[in-house]
Amino acid sequence: MTDIPTLANFIDNAFVAADASAETLAVTTPHTGAVIAHVPLSPASAVDAAVASAKQAFDAWSQQTLKTRASTLLRLLVVLQAHASELAQLIVREHGKTLAEAHGDVAKGLETLEYAVGLPQLCSGHAQQVSGGVSCRDERVALGVVCGIVPFNFPLMVPFWTIPLALGMGNTYVLKPSEKCPLTMLRVAELAGQVLPPGVLNLVNGGQRVAEMLVDHADTRAVAFVGSSAVARMVHVRASVAGKRVVALGGAKNHLVALPDCDVEMAARDIVVSFTGCAGQRCMAASVLLVVGEQPELLRRVVERARQLMPGTTEPQAMGPVIDQAAFDRITSAIEHAETADHAEVLLDGRRTASFLEKRRDTGGFWLGPTVLLHRAAGDQAVRQEVFGPVLSVLQCRDLDHALAVENSSAYGNAACVYTRQGALAEYFERRVGAAMVGVNVGVPVPREPFSFGGTKDSRFGYGDITGDAALDFFSFRRKVTTKWGEPSEKSWMH
Ligand code: NAD
Question: What residue stretches are annotated with the Aldehyde dehydrogenase domain (predicted)?
Answer without folding.
Answer: 20-476
